[in-house]
Amino acid sequence: MTLSALPRRVHLRPEPTGPLATALTLASRSVPVLPLRVGKAPFNNCPTCAKNACGGRPNMKQAGPCTCPRPCHAWAAATSNPDTLRSTAWASAWRQATAVAYHPAGVRLTVVDLDHADAVTWAHAHLPPTRTVPTTRGQHWIYQGTMPSTNGVRPGIDIKSRMAYARWLGPGTGRLVALPDEVRALAVKRTPARPAPEVTAAPARDADGTCPHRTPAYLNRGVAMAEERITKAASGVHATVYRTFLAVLSTHGRCGCLTDAHVARLFAASQAKGETLRHCTDAWANARTTLGL
Fold it and tell me: Tell me, what's the pLDDT at 57?
């Protein structure tokens, strides 16, 4: 028998198990997924991407891997590419993974995360029935359509859609229905629930007693520019919100013209980018303290 006639060894790739197997199944259905570590949290950015030193992904409005080959940037790392999921760069994360998450907006979905029994009871009374998935303490209600993700819209209720991830807990039961106005309204109604800090005290006036801004149009233009700056933030949203609040207050915070309605507009823009009401309030208070207001 010649050497060429000897049987060759066939090296077969072992079939994946655990979270990776689940992730590959979802990816085959075009669902963008990522691994979760202990505590249901995404993996931290690698040293190259730590503190967004890499600048983050160029387009944070869509799911998919960043330029780094590792599963960095939390929800933005979600991908349905099986080669990426099986890659060496992701291998360590899968070995440590305890669960799989997916990017709801990546498949045109919104998840209403009901964290306890009282939240589930409230949902049954106020939201249209849809597909439901049981969780450890409550339920996920899933709707067809996307919206900004917002945490704490009501006690024990978060909305996970754009720029967010949700833990995969199975396909659920029930008929999937279109995202209703009742869910969209949850995010809109958050700001009035806790009034933004008032901007008062010593109004700054010119010698003749008039406001230095001359006309309301100047103030409205400034607030609109601030809203746009927050809305267009592609990364570092926390820092952008604080710097924007600081800029608005430094220009308009002493004359007495800045109203709660203006502040509510800034808070709404920040919450649409995923900020919590508490962070908005803290950032506003910190900016006022920095300026001595």
Answer: 60
Q: What is the pTM of this model?
A: 0.60
Burial of 58 (0-12, 13-18, 19+ CB in 10 A): exposed
Is the pLDDT reported for residue 3 higher than 90? Answer: no
Say how far apart CA 285 and CA 164 lie, in whole Å.
26
DSSP string, 174-200: S--EEPPHHHHHHHHTHHHHSPPPP--
Task: Please answer whether residues 263 and 223 qualify as being in contact, where contact means their C-beta atoms are separated by less than 8 angstroms.
Answer: no
Q: Which residues share a beta bridge with 35?
A: 100
**How far is residue 221's CA from residue 20's CA, in Å, rounded to a whole number?**
50
Separation of alpha carbons 44 and 77, rounded Å: 11
Euclidean distance between CA atoms 93 and 290, whole angstroms: 41
Spatial separation of the C-alpha atoms in residues 151 and 271, rounded to whole Å: 9
Give the integer Cα–Cα distance in Å for 144 and 178.
5
d(CA 2, CA 95): 43
User: Exposed, middle or buried: residue 247 (CB in 10 Å: 0-12, 13-18, 19+)?
Assistant: middle
Q: Sort residue 51 into left (φ over 0), alpha (ψ -120 to 50) or beta.
A: left
Q: Quote the tokens at residue 85.
A: 């999921």
- How distant is the alpha carbon of residue 246 from its chain centre? 23
Confidence of residue 126 (pLDDT cuts 50, 70, 90): very high
